[in-house]
Write a structure and sequence with these properties.
The protein has 16 helices and five strands. With 345 residues, the protein is α/β, with parallel strands linked by helices. Helix 4 runs parallel beside helix 6, helix 11 crosses helix 14 and helix 15 packs antiparallel against helix 16.
Length: 345
């Protein structure tokens, strides 16, 4: 059974299942999820916890032994198994499948790790554990989901959460829930009365948003110029190599070019061929409505020129040119603002 982190406490209040699988790339939600499970488990008599980590030297018999070894001080076993890759291998799959058929009220197993794909979720061991347990996916929050999470955090800290304040915090801390939580806790200390104004919050918080190149690409596909430039600035401040961003932009140019050509020649869009899954197809459709082959040709020329300039170390401020390229994906007409590569003599 799949339960999202914001619904987990309600699910735990109803009952504690024998198995929990906590996977995802969002550390704050994972930490809160694991802590919530531990607290409920402790109240129900699971007062000792064993922690195991699967690595290249891990012996799966250790997990079997852990499930069968009773403590002198507790009749209930609580085992946390860290599975970093989300893939237990052949032997691990057999052990976990066997474990799933031996569920007991006196055994609680929590398996956690990084984000997993459909291949893991469709595996036998995962399905068996999911049948008798709970899967909690912990993915980065954005948009309304992020603002709702912030509103809940502020309410927990005794703060009034207006829509404007939540939007401000989301802008400052998007992609970094740990920093967002810290900012909320800081506001609770600064304004114990619980009702800071928008201006006071703006003065108190620090911009701690964190983005990846993949976030930037999605925003460009959606056509959000303001957010794209903010992300680009953040990537520059974090020291991301310009060549990485240029590679991502070139790859997206190739994909959009192929989709546009297929669309204009009456062919059906083959999403699988380009490995564009359902949750991202709307982004590409948005880009296809804004861009045409002439604009893509102009983009190709700029991408080629910038690539050559970077490889020849003839560019002084690559992020200025990357900004120019990002705006062309929106698209903006930048013919009056040619790229200046600052070529050395």
């Amino acid at each position: 059974m799949q339960v999202y982190p914001n619904r987990l406490k309600a699910a735990l209040a109803q009952r504690l299942t024998p198995f929990y699988m906590v996977f995802g790339d969002e550390p704050q939600q994972k930490m809160e999820t694991l802590q919530a499970i531990r607290e409920v488990a402790l109240r129900q008599g699971f007062d000792e916890r064993q922690s195991l980590t699967v690595d290249s030297q891990f012996n799966w018999n250790n997990l079997v032994e852990a499930t069968q070894t009773l403590s002198l001080f507790s009749s209930k076993q609580f085992i946390e198994l860290e599975l970093p890759t989300g893939k237990p291998g052949t032997e691990g799959s057999k052990i976990l499948s066997m474990l799933a058929t031996q569920s007991s009220d006196d055994l609680l197993v929590v398996i956690h790790g990084a984000k997993i794909g459909k291949d893991v979720q469709s595996s036998k061991w995962f399905k068996l554990l999911d049948k008798n347990g709970v899967y909690v996916p912990c993915y980065p929050l954005e948009g309304n989901s992020l603002q709702q999470w912030l509103s809940q955090q502020m309410h927990t800290e005794g703060l009034q959460a207006s829509k404007e304040i939540c939007q401000l915090l989301a802008d400052y801390c998007e992609g970094n829930l740990l920093a967002a939580k810290q900012e909320v806790q800081k506001l609770a200390l600064l304004y114990p009365a619980g009702n800071p104004s928008l201006e006071q919050v703006e003065q108190a918080v620090v911009d701690q948003s964190r983005f990846t190149v993949f976030h930037l690409i999605d925003v460009l596909l959606a056509g959000d110029a303001q957010k794209a430039l903010k992300m680009l600035y953040r990537l520059e401040s974090e020291g991301i190599e310009p060549t990485i961003i240029l590679w991502a932009l070139t790859r997206e140019w190739q994909t959009i070019q192929a989709l546009l050509f297929a669309q204009q020649t009456g062919q059906a869009l083959n999403w699988n061929q380009h490995r564009i899954w359902g949750n991202r197809q709307a982004l590409y459709l948005s880009a296809l409505q804004r861009l045409d082959l002439a604009q893509m040709h102009a983009l190709q020329k700029k991408l080629t020129t910038l690539d050559f300039a970077i490889k020849q170390s003839q560019i002084l401020r690559p992020y200025v040119e990357l900004c120019h390229l990002c705006l062309m994906f929106i698209p903006f007409n930048l013919e009056a603002f040619p790229l200046d590569y600052g070529l050395s003599d």
